[in-house]
């Protein structure tokens, strides 16, 4: 064991010879410490860590896993998996997010930097024991100490580096569906949004646009004239975002396949031949994204899309998902043939059925192909969780070059900590279930803790049939999430905001407009979180220590100003909300807003389908603007302010060009607004460097529900 310290005081315990995972960049200085958690190293090659849990301890983090904000009482695994059924017993989904905080009388954060399987039993088998099984003995353990949960999260964000930043248009509303089968159908979606005056930032293109599921190909039959189509929509500020899958189709004459073979870019089987498995295109090879020249090569292929005007992509199936390999499907087919005509006993029947049912994503597949990691070959299993991470790194490198340093939208399904630098993630194939809306709420702060800021779930649910009430409720929450995308699976009920009748259409439209109204705030909070290593979404318990705050798992702070408390159950006309302090309930109805001061405590508040509500914290200010059909058409000329001022409130509205990487050099606009309560009036001070803001309209409420309106020309 070796020990190090990082500049911000984080302690590192190095066991064995860990593989570089691209997660932590901070410089390590040698220093001696006592072990904080003493792993035991087992003969089977695993390492075990055990943390005793006190009754009051809570466990936070673990990113995109299912379960609560408090992770106690469940088992989780880090092993990126294409798991299309997010039911309660599932332990692993698409991400490997190995950061968590144990919080009770004291708080401590831990990051296990290891690229293969880790199993967390958080007080499941034994109530008071947190048992961690690491499937290897070479890893770094980071111990992050601090006085508060916010301090620990912040220190962790510092050592993993700043999250990916999309262009400002990435914060708009996106429509998506697997099964928009041709240009005409996509155009119809675009036109229907227009006719109904529902804002639309872009449309995601799923597998349907490709020629035979081939990466970097466009179907001539279904998407002829792709470039003109892309450019035409873009003129109006509407972007198309095509999908790219991890596997490259094995097909003679197909350029990506041929180049991949020639350049030795594919993962190898045990005999050193390109590894073959089957996914959407049938047989595929997987690019070996662990090799730098493969990252560069694959990244450069995105040119086929960027040259048509594309400025955003989504990377899918990069766990990597495998439907079957030849050996396993042959075995299944052979046992079916052998059983033909036989009187099978029930167990043989189940065996046969399972042979087919369990073909996808078998453990043995991941042990049977290899990556070049430095100078050695490692089985995918040994470095499994880095595959999607490096695919997204490859796309990031490629797009940055191809788009001349312009920002782009890039999201990935699989991820591990470190990938947050290169792209965002969506939370995969959820369903149109109320419990999955609830899960979406719980995931936001956990994902933030692990560095994933540009994230959101498929609004309305991916699998199963959505219906009007559910879509509206989902939007009432997801209009706050940085990635806002309504996506659904082929074969399910369509769930565009206009398909469920007039009322749902109007309500959805108002909610999407509310997103555009709040965009300056959402963007500002996103950028400040990135720049200052802060969480954008926080559980209430990060600031309040009372029992009700700790249990409030369906309410979140967004920045320091807002608290959100969405309705996530059917047939409700409102909900109980816990206010840990005095706040103002803000309701947007159409273009008007109403404000009401609420005392600290539990309230039953009405929240109807035509409402949009959030809570403004005491002594806080939020900005908003008039909505528009997309970011290109937004104007900040008149900035509007809602403020709840008891004594003094201040807000710094961050803005920048929204398209370049200039923000990294600190090129930004700042509008600092300070409101102080004087004897009989409010004193307003504005310090503004944003040339696009010409006037500010204030609505200020005090603790006695008195409202004042003011206007300032700049
Ligand atoms: O096997 O591309 O999570 O968003 O629509 C399914 C089709 C493959 C999984 C993604 C989903 C996408 C779907 N993909």
Automatic annotation (TrEMBL):
GO biological process, one term: carbohydrate metabolic process
A Pfam family matched in the record: Glyco_hydro_31_3rd
Keywords: Glycosidase, Hydrolase
InterPro entries, per the entry: DUF5110, Gal_mutarotase_sf_dom, GH, Glyco_hydro_31_AS, Glyco_hydro_31_C, Glyco_hydro_31_N_dom, Glyco_hydro_31_TIM
UniProt domain Glycosyl hydrolase family 31 C-terminal: residue ranges: 536-622
Matches recorded under SUPFAM superfamilies: (Trans)glycosidases, Galactose mutarotase-like, Glycosyl hydrolase domain
Entry's Gene Ontology molecular function annotations: carbohydrate binding; hydrolase activity, hydrolyzing O-glycosyl compounds
Segments forming domain Glycoside hydrolase family 31 TIM barrel: 163-524
Signal peptide: none
PROSITE patterns in the cross-refs: GLYCOSYL_HYDROL_F31_1
Domain annotation DUF5110: ranges: 639-688
Entry keyword annotation includes Acetylation: no
The Glycoside hydrolase family 31 N-terminal domain, residue ranges: 42-121
Sequence similarity: Belongs to the glycosyl hydrolase 31 family.
Official protein name in the record: TIM-barrel domain-containing protein
């Amino acid at each position: 064991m070796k020990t190090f310290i990082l500049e911000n005081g984080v302690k590192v315990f190095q066991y064995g010879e860990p593989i570089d995972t691209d997660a932590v960049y901070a410089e390590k200085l040698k220093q001696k410490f006592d072990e904080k958690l003493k792993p035991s190293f087992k003969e089977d090659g695993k390492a075990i860590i055990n943390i005793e849990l006190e009754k009051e301890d809570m466990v936070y983090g673990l990113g995109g896993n299912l379960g609560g904000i408090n992770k106690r009482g469940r088992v989780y695994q880090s092993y990126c998996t294409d798991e299309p059924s997010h039911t309660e017993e599932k332990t692993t989904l698409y991400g490997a997010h190995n950061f968590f905080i144990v919080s009770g009388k004291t708080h401590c954060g831990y990051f296990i930097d290891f690229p293969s399987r880790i199993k967390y039993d958080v007080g499941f088998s034994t109530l008071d024991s947190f048992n961690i099984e690491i499937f290897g003995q070479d890893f770094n353990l980071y111990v992050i100490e601090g006085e508060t949960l916010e301090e620990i999260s912040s220190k962790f964000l510092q050592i993993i580096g700043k999250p990916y930043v999309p262009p400002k248009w990435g914060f708009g509303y996106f429509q998506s569906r697997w099964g928009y089968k041709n240009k005409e159908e996509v155009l119809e979606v675009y036109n229907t949004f227009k006719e109904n005056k529902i804002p639309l930032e872009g449309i995601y293109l799923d597998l349907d646009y490709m020629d035979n599921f081939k990466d970097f190909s466009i179907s001539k039959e279904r998407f002829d004239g792709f470039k003109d189509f892309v450019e035409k929509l873009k003129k109006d500020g509407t972007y198309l975002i095509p999908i790219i899958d991890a596997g490259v189709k094995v097909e003679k004459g197909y350029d990506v396949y041929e180049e991949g073979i020639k350049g030795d870019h594919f993962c190898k089987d045990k005999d050193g031949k390109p590894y073959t498995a089957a996914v959407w295109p049938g047989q595929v090879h997987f690019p070996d994204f662990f090799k730098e020249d493969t990252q560069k090569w694959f990244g450069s292929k995105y040119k086929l899309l960027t040259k048509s005007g594309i400025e955003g992509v989504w990377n899918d199936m990069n766990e990597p998902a495998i439907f079957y390999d030849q050996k396993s499907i042959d075995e299944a087919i052979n046992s079916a043939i052998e059983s033909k005509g036989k009187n099978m006993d029930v167990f043989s029947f189940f065996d046969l059925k399972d042979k087919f049912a369990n073909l996808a994503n078998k453990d043995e597949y991941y042990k049977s192909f290899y990556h070049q990691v430095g100078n050695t070959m490692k089985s995918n299993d040994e470095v499994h969780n880095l595959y999607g991470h490096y695919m997204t790194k490859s796309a990031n490198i490629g797009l940055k070059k191809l788009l001349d340093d312009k920002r782009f939208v890039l999201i990935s399904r699989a991820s591990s900590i470190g990938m947050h630098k290169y792209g965002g993630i969506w939370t995969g194939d959820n369903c149109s279930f109320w419990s999955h809306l609830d899960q979406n709420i719980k995931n936001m702060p956990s994902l933030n803790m692990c560095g994933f800021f540009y994230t959101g779930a498929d609004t309305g649910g991916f699998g199963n049939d959505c219906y009007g009430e559910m879509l509206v409720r989902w939007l009432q929450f997801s209009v706050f999430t940085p990635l806002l995308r309504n996506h659904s699976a082929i074969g399910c009920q369509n769930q565009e905001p206009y398909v469920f009748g007039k009322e749902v259409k109007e309500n959805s439209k108002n909610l999407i407009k509310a997103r555009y109204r709040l965009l300056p705030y959402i963007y500002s909070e996103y950028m400040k979180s990135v720049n200052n290593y802060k969480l954008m979404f926080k559980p209430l318990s990060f600031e309040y220590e009372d029992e009700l705050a700790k249990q409030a798992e369906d309410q979140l702070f967004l920045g320091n100003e807002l608290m959100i408390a969405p309705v996530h159950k059917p047939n409700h006309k409102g909900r109980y909300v816990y206010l840990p302090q005095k706040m103002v309930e803000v309701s947007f109805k159409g273009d008007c807003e109403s404000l009401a001061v609420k005392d600290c405590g539990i309230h039953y508040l009405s929240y109807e389908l035509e409402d949009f509500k959030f809570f403004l914290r005491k002594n806080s200010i939020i900005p908003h603007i008039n909505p528009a059909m997309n970011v290109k058409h937004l104007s900040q000329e008149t900035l509007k302010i809602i403020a709840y001022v008891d004594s003094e409130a201040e807000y710094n509205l961050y803005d920048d060009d929204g398209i370049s990487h200039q923000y990294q050099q600190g090129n930004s606009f700042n509008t600092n607004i300070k409101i102080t309560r004087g004897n009989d009036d409010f004193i307003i001070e504005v310090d503004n460097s944003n040339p696009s803001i010409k006037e500010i309209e204030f609505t200020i409420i005090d603790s006695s529900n008195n409202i004042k309106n003011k206007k300032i020309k700049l």
